[in-house]
Design a protein that fits this description.
By secondary structure, the chain is an alpha/beta fold. The protein is about 30% helix and about 15% strand. The strands form 2 sheets. It has a 6-stranded parallel beta sheet, with helices on both faces. It has a 3-stranded antiparallel beta sheet with strand order 5-4-6, with helices on one face. Strand 7, helix 8 and strand 8 form a beta-alpha-beta unit. The chain is globular, with a radius of gyration of 18 Å. It starts with 11 loop residues before the first strand and ends with a helix. The chain binds 2'-O-acetyl adenosine-5-diphosphoribose (OAD). The site of 2'-O-acetyl adenosine-5-diphosphoribose has 25 residues, from loops. 2'-O-acetyl adenosine-5-diphosphoribose binds next to loops.
């Protein structure tokens, strides 16, 4: 049903969330084993938390970096990467900061929440908010990294609770909702503005699909809800695409 709609001409947009990386061993935020069951977001993922205790925040990000560094893309990432090369009108929008879509070879990922592998000046200084790549701290951070321009504290270049998203990125994600098929994969669909993209896609008349083993707020809104893990469902869809 979904595969039949995927041809070279299809404008296909995929929104992914933490569930797409679950099979790689990256913990999700919500649900069984979710990070927010054991950690309080307001102590670790807000500008205020960083101002209060930058070392604690970096310890948590260092721990997550170490965990993610040991993870490899799974079949779901691989299928999406191959679609990014196969379908000329394909856009991948992700809420994930782990970099596994890029590691799988997906071209031009629209990263709504930044990257755990990038840092930026926390102030920001005259050098601005442009992030730089930093993979050094792939183990629990012992030192809070410094901004090379002003010597002040550097922070993870991810979006924290209460922060605005980059309007350019939001625009790119929003434009991609003008599509024929919209897939929401492995997201609990509760964090906005990402969760709103599905509504936008519906308004554009897209055929909407959810892939998630658990029901979410989006399940009753989509045309098809596939209650399976992403790595299973995407593999099955990929096998059924008619490439003649
Ligand atoms: P969540 O942790 O909220 O949701 C993950 C979803 O993945 C859940 O609905 C699970 O049922 C589902 N899931 C688990 N295993 C799966 C699998 N193998 N295949 C498919 N789905 C699976 O993650 P997000 O929706 O990405 O924000 O969370 C959104 C944002 O909330 C994150 O980007 C982060 C978090 O706070 C920021 O850090 C700003």
């Amino acid at each position: 049903m979904v595969a039949a709609r995927l041809t070279r001409e299809t404008r296909l947009t995929v929104l992914t969330g933490a569930g797409v990386s679950a099979a790689s061993g990256v913990p999700t935020f919500r649900g069984a084993g979710g990070l927010w069951r054991n950690f309080r977001p307001e102590e670790l993922a807000t500008p205020r938390a960083f101002a209060r205790d930058p070392r604690l925040v970096w310890e948590w990000y260092g721990w997550r970096r170490g965990l993610i560094a040991a993870c490899r893309p799974n079949r779901a990432h691989d299928v999406l990467a191959s679609w990014s090369r196969q379908f000329p009108k394909f856009t991948l929008v992700t809420q994930n900061v782990d970099g596994l879509h890029e590691a799988a070879g997906t071209q031009e990922v629209v990263r709504m929440h930044g990257s755990i592998w990038e840092v930026r000046c926390a102030r920001p200084c005259a050098a601005g908010t442009t992030p730089w790549r930093d993979e050094v701290s792939a183990k629990p951070a012992l030192e809070v990294p410094a901004c090379p321009h002003c010597g002040g504290l550097a922070r993870p270049a991810v979006v924290w609770f209460g922060e605005m998203l980059d309007p350019v990125i939001v625009d790119r994600a929003s434009s991609a909702t003008d599509c024929d098929v919209f897939l929401a994969v492995g997201t609990s669909a509760v964090v906005y503005p990402a969760a709103g993209l599905l509504h936008e896609a519906k308004r554009h008349g897209a055929f909407t699909v959810e892939i998630n083993p658990e029901a979410t707020d989006a399940s009753h809104l989509v045309d098809v809800a596939i209650a399976e893990p992403a790595e299973v469902a995407l593999d099955a869809i990929d096998a059924m695409i008619d490439r003649a």
